[in-house]
Amino acid sequence: MTAPTLQALPETRCPLCGGANQCEPAQTGRLDVECWCTTAAISPAALALVPADKINKACLCPRCAAGVNAD
Ligand SMILES: [Zn+2]
Q1: pLDDT per residue over 20-61, tens digit each?
Q2: Ligand 1 midpoint to CA 16 (Å)
Q3: Is 4 domain-assigned?
Q4: What is the pLDDT of residues 2-24, one digit of tens each?
């Protein structure tokens, strides 16, 4: 039995606006790099708009994460 290898998903697009999410792990395919979103405050309103199949898989872009597009 093989242990599941944690690998960053190549989700480089924001699930809300389709723009570049600037996710470092998604771009490099590595989980030992930090995404900007680990230290950013993510708007709960923006998070609520993320499709269920993208939650914990794709990063939002900085604009959406800040709630700019959600009103
Ligand atoms: Zn976005």
Answers
A1: 999 999 999 998 999 999 999 999 999 999 999 999 899 999
A2: 5
A3: no
A4: 666 667 889 999 999 999 999 99
As a whole number of Å, the end-to-end CA separation of the chain is 47
pTM of the model: 0.79
**How many angstroms separate the alpha carbon of residue 1 from the centre of ligand 1?**
38
Q: How far is the CA of 25 from the centre of ligand 1 (A)?
A: 17
- Cα angle 42, 48, 50; round to 5: 90
Q: Which domain holds residue 68?
A: 10-71
Q: Which residue do the tokens 């490099």 mark? A: 28
**How far apart are the CA of 31 and the centre of ligand 1, in A?**
21
